[in-house]
Amino acid sequence: EAGVAQSPRYKIIEKRQSVAFWCNPISGHATLYWYQQILGQGPKLLIQFQNNGVVDDSQLPKDRFSAERLKGVDSTLKIQPAKLEDSAVYLCASSQGPSSEQYFGPGTRLTVT
Amino acid sequence: AQSVTQPDIHITVSEGASLELRCNYSYGATPYLFWYVQSPGQGLQLLLKYFSGDTLVQGIKGFEAEFKRSQSSFNLRKPSVHWSDAAEYFCAVGGTGGGNKLTFGTGTQLKVEL
User: Of A86, B4, B13, B80, which is the most buried if we count CB atoms within 10 A?
Assistant: First the structure.
């Protein structure tokens, strides 16, 4: 069974630029999550999708972050414009349902200079 | 609000020695509890989980954890550590009351001395 795929693995941008991350969940997984992991901290949930609908985006900085999950499969997370404090690893996870085990991708390491 | 505390930021053990990583949680209902491991440049891998039932949970790679409701703890243990266990370990809490939203601790970095 293929795992959660993410790309790119690394990205370096300057502040005020925009960036997008892509996630392909495990086939058949209805629930998809985006987490932000700042160095030295645990992952923090940014947004949770159930199929193509948003379940929880309470911790998503909506003035600069956006996410979508068209057709209930792949998802993209965008930051526009980026700030220095957005430097982090962005993890995507998926599960069969909201009460099932979450499987994590390898993450995208973002550096904002 | 749900929260997790991992009081040890760094732990160093000798290979072959026993290991215990501490985790305390705060959750308003019956919690789901998890331990994840993260190696450098890798995503999070689930070691074990507690949903209900037996409070002593067995996981992969020889790890186990014990749920103690009275102490709000879910400590991770391994009787004999291998050098390959060096990684960062995260405790997390969630539950149906929160839509399975996971809240993670800040992690414990494990170093294994040969």
Answer: B4
